[in-house]
Every structure is written in structure tokens, then in C-alpha cells.
Amino acid sequence: MNKKTGVNERCVVDFSVIDKEFSFKLGKVNYIKARQPLDAHIHENKIELVYIVKGEQIYNVKDKDYVVRSGECFIVYADELHSTGCNPEDKAYFYYFIIDLNKHKNNLIGYGDIEGDNIVKLINNSEDRVFKASTRISEIFDNLIKVPFRNVPYKKTIIRNLVSELLLNIIECKNTQNRDYYSNTMQNITDYIEENIYSNISISELADICRLSETRFKTKFKNQFSMPPHEYILRRKIGTAKILLSTTDMTITDVAFTLSFSSSQYFATVFKRFTCMSPKDYKKIYYKK
């Protein structure tokens, strides 16, 4: 099913339509601009895996926010109440996959009770809710969402194989990688941005830190984070602005100039682009005296 809203596009495939024994669905979402926050909900007996292709999202589980960036996966375990909290669904391109693991632990995931139980247990290891995805996970999602539209007599076999491979890749990624996966150079850059978030950070100074030309730096940065460095800086500044607006009595103009925006009008434009509301409305809702 495709749903276009003029600026956003969503494609959701419920695989139980293909075979009633398939208790899983896959969604492909491309938000061209921010949307209202995602309401709290649960998936009964099912886990949800989110893979961010481009952009970032903030999800809230058990009153804790998790920032998930491009190239990363996020897992919501069965029956967990989750939402985006007070954060809007950000401009992003991502997949989400919802599956009942226990229902499929023998006929789809593993061979026999012992192996199936072990695979489910490894996936349900809640210590690793956010992790770096392999490029293969992206390829599997790309292929899996197209299979229902293929005219082949072995469609169900392809689906079983891709889902099995997906779940095994999740285990491999969770067990072998963590959030500290960036190259030392790019880690230094993100640290520098955080340490200088109140300054006017130029692309040229970031390129100098890496000893790269601006063109080469922009390419390397975008390959790592799936967004240009300027957009990354703006996102981090808006994240800091949200904290200042909700926890201090600073005016919107004060926040804008504290974060080195050229004007309060430009700050308001950028803020609304990433949060789906004006800084004035945000402060009115979230500032607690």
C-alpha cells in the first residue's frame, strides 16, 4: 500500500496478506519535512526494528530519548510503550519492520526449538537498543519491500530467506559493533561541533581539522552521516535550542544569538523546519518555570 501526502510518502507491506502464517510487516517512509510527534503505542507480542537511511529520529522508550542517526538501527522490544516523546517525527528516510519473533522462531528463523530460542534470545538482548547497521541490512530492506510485487512462483521462499538473513545480520551487528564506530577523524569532528555548538562553525575550519579540502571533507562527511555537514550542525544547534527554550527563561532572540544564528528570523525558520513548530510555540508548551 502506498500513501502520498503531498510532501511525504509511505509504503507499507503486510506480509500476512501473502501468507497468513507470516506475522510481520515492513514500512518504507520518506518524510520530506517534519511531522507532529508520534503518539505512544505498543506492538503486542512483536518487536519493531527501525533502520534510518537518511536523517535522524528521536524515539522515546521508558521515558528515555534515543537519537537514531543515518546508518543506525533502533529496536523496540515486544509490548514496550514507545513514541517520539515531545519530539516531532523528523525529516528522514527510513524503514521499520515489525515481527512476532516467537511465532516464527522455528518455521522461519531457526531450525528446531533450541536454535530458534537462541536466535530470539540474542535479538532480544536489550543492552543494545541502538547500533550501527551493516550495509547488507539496507540491501535486505530494499529487496524485501519489492518482493510482494514480483511475479515469481517462489515468492514465499525469497521472503523467508530475506527475513532470516535480516535477523541474523541484526545479531551480528549487535554483537560486533557499538555506537563508537566512527572513524577517529569523524569522531573528532562531531566532538568539535558539540564543544563549539554556540559558535559560528564554518565548513572550512572543519575541513582544516581533517586536513582535507572542503570538497573532499563534505564528501567524506556525507558518506559517513548521510547528510551534509551544514545540515548536521544545524540539527545539533536546534537540539541545543530545544533544551534552552524548555529549561531556561531565555528569550527566543537570546537563544538565536547565543547559538550564533545570523538573526532571530532565520533561527525561527530553521527551528520550524526541524521541529514542525515555531520556537515561540515550543517554549509555550515545554517551558516549565
Q: What's the layout of helices and strands?
A:
Elements (H helix, E strand, L loop, with lengths): L1 E3 L3 E7 L9 E8 L15 E15 L2 E6 L2 E5 L5 E2 L8 E8 L1 H9 L3 H11 L6 E3 L2 H10 L10 H22 L7 H12 L7 H8 L3 H12 L3 H19 L4 H7 L5 H12 L3 H8 L3
Antiparallel strand pairs: 1-2, 2-3, 3-8, 4-5, 4-6, 4-7, 4-8, 6-9
Notable features of this structure?
sequence-specific DNA binding; Jelly Rolls; Arc Repressor Mutant, subunit A; HTH-like; RmlC-like_jellyroll; 289 residues; single chain; alpha+beta
Explain what you see:
The protein is α+β, with helices and mostly antiparallel strands and 289 residues long. It contains 11 helices and 9 strands. Strands 1, 2, 3, 4, 5, 6, 7, 8 and 9 form a 9-stranded antiparallel beta sheet that branches. Residues 1-7 have low confidence and may be disordered. Residues 187-285 form the HTH araC/xylS-type domain.
Q: Strand-and-helix sequence, N→C?
A: EEEEEEEEHHEHHHHHHHHH
- CATH superfamily membership of the largest domain: Regulatory protein AraC
Measured as a percent range, the helix fraction is 40-55%
Let me know the number of strands.
9
Largest sheet: 9 strands, antiparallel
Instruction: Tally the helices.
Output: 11
Taken together, the total number of domains comes to 2
What is the name of the CATH class of the largest domain? Mainly Beta
Strand content: 15-25%
Shape: globular
Cα gyration radius (Å): 21 Å
Q: Architecture of the largest domain, CATH level 2? A: Sandwich
Protein name: Helix-turn-helix transcriptional regulator
GO molecular function: DNA-binding transcription factor activity; sequence-specific DNA binding
Keywords: DNA-binding, Transcription, Transcription regulation
Organism: Vallitalea guaymasensis
